[in-house]
Specification:
Helices cover 30% and strands 26% of the residues. It is elongated and about 85 Å long. The chain has 2 domains: 92 residues, OB fold (Dihydrolipoamide Acetyltransferase, E2P), CATH 2.40.50; 301 residues, Bira Bifunctional Protein, Domain 2 (BirA Bifunctional Protein, domain 2, 2-Layer Sandwich), CATH 3.30.930.10. It starts with 16 loop residues before the first strand and ends in a 20-residue tail after the last helix. The relative contact order is 0.11. The chain is an alpha+beta fold. The strands form 4 sheets. Strands 6-10-11-18-17-16-13-12 form an 8-stranded mixed beta sheet. The protein binds 4-amino-1,4-dioxobutan-2-aminium adenosine-5'-monophosphate and magnesium ion (MG).
Length: 432
């Protein structure tokens, strides 16, 4: 097979003649010189086609190329500091593969709904390309982080018999003769079982919430990574979350600086993501809100605006721990020092991006867990297997969930989660 060349590797081929396959991103033409810009998925490169160097037929072919037509461009690689990727191709041949019909997305401004309806095409734009590459880097760094620390990846099921994160956001489906099944809201309960088998585990997959809210922070389908560690308490959990976030951000800064530049992301905010991340209790967070004049009542959950006001007081991600137990999930352990609060922690991203991590130490006492299941009006029978984890060698354990799209959105500096996932699912969007 002939060697394939890609735009991102051109630096290693200066002076050589290479053949690139791709799509026409844009072109400019003078009389005796034409500049077709090729996009191949790894980058953009401008071809320089000089009339006197080419047959008339090849030179004229460039005129036929419409935006997004597929073609092959052959030429000699030349370093050109003024060019977008730093290199240009002195064209020796052009072969047309398919002429594209009139492309609906042009360099002019389009509305977001127009673009979301054409998301399958919109992905080709430089901005979306950059976001997807950063998303990939984030996912890779998540896996590298845990794999490098002896965690085992354990996949949790998508069809589940019961709720994990409250019954109000469940997607329901008929499941043969077995009655109802629900799309998973979180792999946590299964991660807990796996942690009792393997010690340090993580589960990573799509999760579903029938969110009726139309906010910029909510999707109905999103990806979540959830580590769970046997014998970890709340402090260990916060230490892990801190190391984890610093690792992800540093990995993006190191490997995806060109993409961050494409997005015009102010990386000064990201450079600051270093240990230690501040840790405050919910009580302290409430004090901040009161000092800022907000009429917040102790016992309520923090809303989006509250989170923004609190996190504005800090220059890096912030951990808020020990929330009122009443507003948190059934599985969270209460603080033995103050049973009104749960040993929970949320990590709030700076710059108003809100909660990116939610986690806790888990209730490890059988009787207390049974009591919580009753208080939350959950069907005990569906949780018998989960209760077994407390019947057979229960130990303290803790974990958290990081939302991939919230993290992508924050690191890329996006306005809305819909651009942080290739094909967003929201209350009012199921296509493409
Ligand atoms: O805080 P949540 O609901 O926590 C859990 O699901 C736990 N079971 C995790 C655990 O302890 N293993 O969700 C965790 C994270 C949030 O911090 C947020 O980043 C993301 O998941 N998230 C969403 N992302 C996009 N759209 C939604 N509707 C989301 N709901 C939660
Ligand atoms: Mg949460």
């Amino acid at each position: 097979m002939a060697t394939k060349f890609y735009v991102e590797d051109l630096a290693q081929h200066v002076g050589e003649e290479v053949t690139l396959q791709g799509w026409l991103y844009n072109k400019r033409s003078g009389g005796k010189i034409k500049f077709p810009i090729l996009r191949d998925g790894t980058g953009l490169v401008q071809g320089v086609a000089v009339k006197s160097n080419l047959s008339e037929e090849v030179f004229n072919r460039i005129d036929q190329l419409t935006q997004e037509s597929s073609f092959v461009m052959k030429g000699k690689v030349r370093k050109e500091d003024r060019a977008p990727g730093g290199y240009e191709l002195d064209v020796t041949d052009i072969e047309i593969l398919k002429i594209a019909q009139e492309y609906p997305i042009t360099p002019k401004e389009h509305g977001v709904e127009f673009l979301m309806d054409r998301r399958h095409l919109w992905l080709r734009s430089s901005r979306q390309h950059a976001i997807l590459r950063i998303r990939h880097q984030i996912i890779k760094s998540i896996r590298d982080f845990f794999d490098g620390r002896g965690f085992t990846l354990v996949d949790s099921p998508i069809f589940t018999p019961a709720a994990c994160e409250g019954t109000s956001t469940l997607f329901e489906t008929e499941y043969f003769d077995l009655g109802k099944a629900y799309l998973t809201q979180s792999g946590q309960l299964y991660a807990e079982a796996a942690a009792m088998a393997l010690g340090k585990v993580y589960t990573f997959g799509p999760t579903f919430r029938a969110e009726k809210s139309k906010t910029r922070r909510h999707l109905t389908e999103f990806w979540m990574v959830e580590p769970e560690v046997a014998f970890n308490d709340l402090n260990d959990n916060m230490d892990l979350a801190e190391d984890f976030l610093v690792y992800i951000v540093q990995s993006v800064l190191k490997n995806r600086s060109a993409e961050l530049k494409t997005l015009e992301r102010n990386t000064a905010f990201l450079e600051r993501v270093q240990k230690p991340l501040p840790r405050i209790s919910y009580d302290e967070a409430v004090d901040i809100l009161h000092k800022k004049g907000l009429p917040f009542e102790w016992g309520n959950d923090l809303g989006g605006t509250d989170e923004t006001v609190i996190s504005e007081q800090f220059d890096r991600p912030l951990m808020v721990h020990r929330y009122p137990a009443e507003v948190k999930a059934f599985y969270m352990k209460r603080d033995p020092q103050n049973p009104k609060v749960a040993l929970a922690v949320d990590v709030l991203a700076p710059e108003g991006y809100g909660e990116i991590i939610g986690g806790s130490q888990r209730e490890d006492d059988l009787d207390l867990l049974l009591q919580r299941i009753k208080e939350h009006d959950l069907p005990q029978s569906a949780f018998e297997w989960y209760l077994d984890l407390r019947r057979y060698g229960s130990v303290p354990h803790a974990g958290f969930g990081l939302g991939v799209e919230r993290t992508v959105s924050w690191i890329c500096g996006l306005d809305h989660l819909r651009e942080a996932i290739p094909f967003a699912r929201m209350i009012y969007r199921l296509t493409p």
